Amino acid sequence: MANNPHTTPNSGQPNDTEFKTDEHSKSESLEKYRSDATGHDLRTNHGARIADNHNSLKAGERGPTLLEDFIFREKLNHFDNERIPERIVHARGAAAHGYFQPYDNAAQYSKAGLFQDPGKKTPVFVRFSTVQGARGSNDTVRDVRGFATKFYTDEGNWDLVANNMPVFFIQDAIKFPDFVHAVKPEPHNEIPQGQSAHDTFWDFVSLMPESTHMVLWTMSDRAFPRHYRNMEGFGVHTFRLIDKQGKSRFVKFHWKPLAGTCSLIWDEAQKLWGRDPDFNRRMMWEDIENGDFLEYEFGIQVVEEEDEHKFDFDLLDPTKLIPEEQVPVIPIGKMVLNRNPDNFFAETEQVAFNPAHIVPGIDFSNDPLLQGRLFSYLDTQMLRLGGPNFNELPINQPVCPFHNNQRDSMHRQTINKGQASYEPNSIDGGWPSETPAAPENGGFESHYERIDAHKVRARSPSFGDHYSQATLFWNSQTDVEKEHIIAAYTFELSKVQRPWIRERVIQEILPNIDLELARRVGENHGIEAPSEKSAPAEELGRSSQQESPTLSLMARLPGNIKYRKVAILAADGVDAGQVEAIKQKLEAEGAEGMVIAPSMAPLTAADGKQVAPDAMLNGMPSVAVDAVIVPAGSDSVDALAQSGLGRYYVQEAYKHLKAIAAVGEGKMLLDAADVPTNEEGVLTGSALDDVFTALRDAMGQHRVWARDGKANDMPA
Ligand code: HDE
To answer: Which of 335-344, 437-446, 499-508 is predicted with the least confidence, judged by mean pLDDT?
Structure first.
């Protein structure tokens, strides 16, 4: 037997307590896994150099392929097994690296290391996703967006697995499989992809009044953000923050986009499915490549433990939000996404988020939806990522050291040294050893909570209010937003085949939100809505607040034109000087001007100069830009006016409430396309400076809202 010098467990001090990360720690930890083939030979996975990568080994040039061909076999074997299961929900996503930096007020709320020092940058990896569609579905579908953040902190990974809406469809995790089966493409024909506009979804939600509030959010324009930089994020559940004294407070987590909130228009979103199915991921990718990083402020709503029951809803009910007027959001830090992944599969696809990943200073509440999530994520990842060692995948590893006695299973990478894979032990010096709980030591300690209850399978009566916050959301929308919601219910229900499901929504659900909403949607379906609310009093709730302005997307409009794309429509004969001036003016405001022409052939401008198009009329259609400007140049405008694509471009921009500007003869294109020129948001004139200023101001409001409704008359 070996002569072991260690006779007592835990001899000596652990050497990883002083571990410190910085903004670059995660990227540096990935470096040893990055592979660059530049300057290297083509070899098999086992290292043999390959001399011919075009021909398999055959018995004669025209004979059968030989089983002996290990080069061919390895290549096909690997290829045949390239796919893994996609996520059961949130399959389609795009991600970016960045960092989080706290403000100087964060440490007072939580002892978590990442909040302590305003100078410290913690690396993050954020994945945005849609929920319903498959991995290859479209970006701009009507759906919730996932907003999952992995903070690689000194004390381990904290995953804030959030959405862009602050509430959820169900109250208890036991209903999650039912909900997902209902919303996913239907089981007999796998239709429709990426949409909730079908019978099983509306059947389920109309039988589950608790879903009403969240369904209303998904019927709003929040369901198709213009850009990931323009959407909010919400942790949904109530969590806990634990401070240095061990005091617990309830908390809701928020991401507020610094670029403001704004969304697409439904018709535009649908057209983008075909024109650019990668719209959101492309924009994020290109912006980060261009140095236009995505920025969010991290905020918290804090509720003292003793105030837990002072609200007219239950803090543990995930179908409720805390109105910001009742508990303001305190900004406590900033996140910047500034680096694209090197490899989609290795990083974006293999990343595994889990709300159960927390660090000391953060803890769970008893929200029954959250409690269920704490089980579900690891469970599903075992299948998706092939066993329990996916934590070793480079993107999932914490940047701090981690040692324990978990061992073996599929694809184990770590080569654990020593003989003792158990604790306590006296063979390997007692290592790895426990860290005592308490802030000064750093060991995780669950919040000390007394639970004294019967074991029951029941829902708390305090979860019984299903409608009052839906009404609050409805009341808080502007008229334009309300019209869009009415149109959304009308559209979705038009896809529902079974009349009794449509009737149930219009007669039993919508009136309990708002009678006018029910009446309008009912009118569009030829179904009479009741004149009184029908739900029992406890389901209608007792909200003390009737409106909350921050629930409107308009509350945080961008206000400027930074990051916006503007189409400069041009053909041969365009005024080249004006094109250049427009580009420069846009650039000065942080926006981008793109010359869009009938083809990619260089244009010959009026002064004989060459102007290179950035894109073609049908390659960069109006749905892909935020505004349109038509510069002067009579031949150019003539050519555009005669082209169906040219006229359609401005008509479609008009329909989608975009600011449209025309300088000098540019107005002729608007006339030819029957775009009204004497109204708000259609800006014409002979002086570029004036037209540009008006265009910039109109774009600051994101869209020309006054045109809503009227724009439907446009045939585009
Ligand atoms: Fe998830 N959810 N979820 N979810 N969720 C998954 O985990 C689940 C819920 C969210 O980019 C799955 O690894 C249950 C709320 C995001 O990889 C799965 C319940 C919120 C992502 C799962 C919920 C979310 C997921 C599928 C109800 C907002 C994508 C693949 C009890 C706070 C993360 C996976 C990424 C992914 C379960 C409800 C956000 C099946 C059981 C509420 C952003 O485990």
So the answer is: 437-446
What is the arithmetic mean of pLDDT over 668-686? 97
Query: Domain segments of the chain: what residues?
Result: 93-208+226-392, 559-713
Q: Quick one: tokens of 457?
A: 């399978």
| Cβ of 688 below 6 Å from ligand 1 | no
pLDDT of residue 9: 55
- Spatial separation of the C-alpha atoms in residues 124 and 121, rounded to whole Å: 9
Q: Give the distance from CA 206 to its chain's centroid.
A: 26
The SS3 call for residue 102 is: strand
Between the CA of 88 and the centroid of ligand 1 the distance, in Å, is 9
Residue 197: its pLDDT value, please?
98
Q: Please provide the distance, in angstroms rounded to a whole number, between the alpha carbons at the two ends of the chain.
A: 85
Is the pLDDT at 7 greater than 50? The verdict is no
Question: What mean pLDDT is reported for the chain?
Answer: 96
Q: What is the mean pLDDT of residues 621-643?
A: 98
* Whole-angstrom distance, CA of residue 529 vs CA of residue 472: 20
| Beta bridge partner(s), residue 627 | 566, 659
Mean pLDDT of 475-481: 97
How does pLDDT run across 239-271, given as a tens digit for each residue?
Answer: 999 999 999 999 999 999 999 999 999 999 999
Q: What strands lie across the sheet with 682-685, from one edge to the other?
A: 615-616, 592-597, 565-569, 627-630, 659-663, 682-685
Contact 566, 629 (CB under 8 A): yes
Confirm or reject: Cβ of 57 under 6 Å from ligand 1. Answer: no
User: Mean per-residue pLDDT for 672-691?
Assistant: 97
Residue 449 has, within 13 A of its CA and on its CB side, a CA count of 15
**Residue with token string 């010096």:** 429
Regarding the beta carbon of 377 and ligand 1, being less than 6 Å apart is answered: yes
Pocket test of ligand 1: the residue of 84, 86, 87 to mutate, having most ligand atoms within 8 Å of its CB, is: 87
Say yes or no: CB of residue 93 within 6 Å of ligand 1. Answer: yes
Percentage of the chain beyond pLDDT 70 is: 98
For a pLDDT cut of 90, what percent of the chain falls above it? 95
Ligand 1 atom with least separation from CA of 379: 44
Is the C-beta atom of 254 inside 6 A of ligand 1?
A: no
Q: Is the CB of residue 183 below 6 angstroms from any atom belonging to ligand 1?
A: no
* Ligand 1 atom closest to residue 235's alpha carbon, by position in its atom list: 32
Q: How many CB atoms lie within 10 A of CB 572?
A: 18
pLDDT value for 13: 74
Q: What is the pLDDT of residue 227?
A: 98
Q: Identify the residue whose tokens are 């004390």.
A: 155
Mutation probe of ligand 1 site: the residue of 321, 377, 396 with most atoms within 8 A of C-beta: 377
What ipTM is given for this predicted complex?
0.97
Euclidean distance between CA atoms 149 and 128, whole angstroms: 9
Which CATH superfamily groups domain 559-713?
Answer: Class I glutamine amidotransferase (GATase) domain (3.40.50.880)
Q: Which two tokens stand for residue 224?
A: 């198709």
**Residue with the nearest Cα to atom 30 of ligand 1?**
87
Ligand 1 pocket: which of 132, 211, 376, 390 to mutate (most atoms within 8 A of CB): 376
> Ligand 1: does its nearest atom lie under 6 Å from the Cβ of 149?
no
**Cα separation, 157 vs 100, whole angstroms:** 13
The CATH superfamily holding the domain 93-208+226-392 is Catalase core domain (2.40.180.10)
Distance between CA atoms of residues 390 and 547, nearest Å: 46
Name the DSSP letter for residue 253. Answer: E
Binding-site residue numbers for heme are: 87, 127, 176, 373, 377, 384
Tell the residue nearest (CA) to atom 11 of ligand 1: 127
Which helix or strand (DSSP H or E) is residue 123 part of? strand 122-130
pLDDT digits (tens, 9 = 90+) for 556-584: 999 999 999 999 999 999 999 999 999 99
Q: What is the DSSP letter of 632?
A: -
Distances (CA, A) of 428 to 1, 405, 418, 421: 14, 12, 6, 9
